[in-house]
Amino acid sequence: MTGTERTLPADEYYLQVRGHSGNSLLWWRNGRHGYTCDIQQAHVFTKEEAFRQAKVRDGEDIPWRKDYIDAHLQHHVNSELVSRKHEGAV
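Given the sequence above, the corresponding structure tokens read:
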């Protein structure tokens, strides 16, 4: 895209990397620099980019419409990051 074109929400996609971490899906990180479980750090692809990449990687990447995934977001606390032993936790 040249920057002057407007992408419609239905044309925005995330790419899931096959696999997961715990019960969190893995996504291509923003800028296509590695992977992330944090959808806020995920790269947003155009529909064409997403399906082209999925085809090239032969099923390793799974395209999802951004608006569909965004509608299913859940915020949660990672149990590995909290402890009642931490000062100020209780």
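Residues 9-81 form one domain. Try to locate this feature in the token string yourself.
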